[in-house]
Amino acid sequence: MDERLYWEDFAPGDVLELGCHTFTEEEIVDFARRWDPQPFHVDPQTARASAFGGLVASGWHTCAVGMRLMVEKYIGRSASLGSPGLDAIRWLAPVRPGDTLTYRRQIVEARPSRSRPGVGLVRSRWEAVNQRGELVMTMEGWGMFARRGAG
User: Fold this and answer.
1) How far is the CA of 61 from the CAs of 15, 25, 64, 68, 123, in angstroms?
2) 9-29 average pLDDT score
3) Phi, psi at residue 86, to the nearest 5°?
4) Cα–Cα separations (whole angstroms), residue 128 to 43, 51, 103, 144
5) 4 has pLDDT over 60
6) Of the candidates 66, 83, 78, 54, the residue with the CA atom closest to the CA atom of residue 139
7) Where are the domains of the chain?
8) CA angle, 43 as apex, 40 and 45 as ends, to 5°?
9) Do the Cβ atoms of 99 and 133 come closer than 8 Å?
10) Which CATH superfamily is domain 7-146 in?
11) Theoretical Cys-Cys bridge with 40: which of 15, 47, 65, 100, CB 3.0 to 4.6 Å?
12) Whole-angstrom Cα distance, residue 117 to residue 102?
């Protein structure tokens, strides 16, 4: 039996827990220095005087962690053909050092491609919730997957 995931394996309404990640100060600063060097991400002292009142993770950092968990949990064993992009990302609450986020994915829609018969499109919503139960991030977008037996 083929254990790879194909388009047919993604049913609207399905929810998948992707895993958890705890953000450390060192990790937040390292990511931000490389990819989003705004003062409230890289300098704890300057961050205290910011609107956030302290160091916070870059929203792109929370997305990158979510992407890693997605690949580990399901994309890495799927017949993924990439993505045409995201439709929306929302950073709803700051992520601080010591916060643990739990990520999950819900399938919103699945339909065959109109132009490529061997391809199916899957629209998903990903959420990250902190240890206090606060929704801190949402993303919505499309993935492309090979259809079972299509080649």
Assistant:
1) 23, 12, 5, 11, 22
2) 98
3) -100, 145
4) 24, 22, 4, 22
5) yes
6) 66
7) 7-146
8) 95
9) no
10) Hotdog Thioesterase (3.10.129.10)
11) 47
12) 35
Per the document, the length of the chain is 151
Q: Do residues 55 and 97 make contact, with C-beta atoms less than 8 angstroms apart? A: yes
Question: Tokens at residue 33, please?
Answer: 């220095």
pLDDT in tens, 31-73: 999 999 999 999 999 999 999 999 999 999 999 999 999 999 9
Q: For 38, phi and psi rounded to 5 degrees?
A: -80, 145
Six token digits for residue 32: 């931000």
Nearest to 146 by CA among 77, 85, 72: 77
Q: What is the pLDDT of residue 3?
A: 87
Residue 46 tokens, joined: 């300057």
pTM score of the predicted model: 0.93
Name the DSSP letter for residue 24: P
